[in-house]
Design goal:
about 200 residues, alpha/beta, five-stranded parallel β-sheet, 7 helices, 5 strands
Length: about 200
C-alpha cells in the first residue's frame, strides 16, 4: 500500500491550519509571553498543567524554562503539576480526580505566579478547577484551548489570556499548541535576555 498520499495530506492539512491560525493566535501568544515574562522578572514562577497529551506539553514547557530553549541562559522557575506522579495518583486515589491540579495549586501557587493550562480536548473539570484555584490565589492565568472547550474561556477574567485554536481535530490542536509553547519560550527568552542569532 502506498502511504504517501496519507502522509502528504497530513502535512498539507497542518500547513493550512497553521496559515489560517497565525493571525488569530499571534496577539494572544504575545500577551501570554508578556504576562509570563513579567511574572519571572518579579521572581514569581510559571505552573503548567494538562491531561493526557497535554500533560506532556506542560512538561515540555517547564523543561524548556528550567533548562534552556535555544540559548544558554539561567534556569527559569517553572514546574508541571503532572510531573509528580505520586502526588497526582494519591489525590486521584482518594476520589478527588477533579482536584489533581487545584489541590496542588492551593499548596504551591502564590500571588503573582502564572498558571498555563493546556487543553486539546473537550472540557475538563480538573482544568476548570485549576483555573478557579489559580484565580483565588491571585495568579495570572493563560489557557490554551480549542473550539470544543468553551468552559475554560468562560471562566477567565479580563486580565487573563485565552489562546483558542480554531480546529476540531485533536492532532492539529496539539501541533498548534506545541508551536505556541515554543513561541512562548522564545519570546520569554527575548524579553528577559535579549535577542540572539539562531542558525
Amino acid at each position: 500500500m502506498d502511504y504517501y498520499p496519507i502522509i502528504a495530506e497530513n502535512f498539507q492539512n497542518t500547513i493550512e491550519t497553521i496559515a489560517m491560525s497565525v493571525d488569530d493566535l499571534a496577539g494572544m501568544i504575545e500577551r501570554g509571553s508578556q504576562l509570563m515574562a513579567a511574572a519571572l522578572l518579579a521572581d514569581r514562577k510559571i505552573i503548567a498543567c494538562g491531561n493526557g497529551v497535554d500533560a506532556a506539553l506542560a512538561q515540555l514547557f517547564a523543561c524548556n524554562l528550567l533548562h534552556r530553549f535555544e540559548q544558554d541562559r539561567p534556569a527559569l522557575p517553572a514546574l508541571s503539576l503532572t510531573a509528580d506522579y505520586a502526588s497526582v495518583t494519591a489525590i486521584a486515589q482518594d476520589g478527588a480526580l477533579n482536584e489533581i491540579f487545584s489541590r496542588q495549586l492551593r499548596a504551591l501557587g502564590q500571588a503573582g505566579d502564572v498558571l498555563l493550562c493546556i487543553n486539546s480536548s473537550e472540557g475538563s473539570s480538573s482544568l476548570l478547577r485549576a483555573v478557579q484555584a489559580a484565580q483565588q490565589r491571585n495568579m495570572g492565568v493563560i489557557v490554551m484551548t480549542n473550539t470544543r472547550d468553551t468552559a475554560l474561556g468562560a471562566a477567565l477574567r479580563p486580565e487573563d489570556v485565552a489562546l483558542q485554536v480554531n480546529t476540531t481535530r485533536q492532532s492539529r490542536i496539539v501541533e498548534l499548541h506545541t508551536m505556541a509553547i515554543h513561541s512562548f519560550c522564545e519570546l520569554i527568552d527575548h524579553s528577559l535576555f535579549g535577542s540572539y542569532h539562531q542558525e
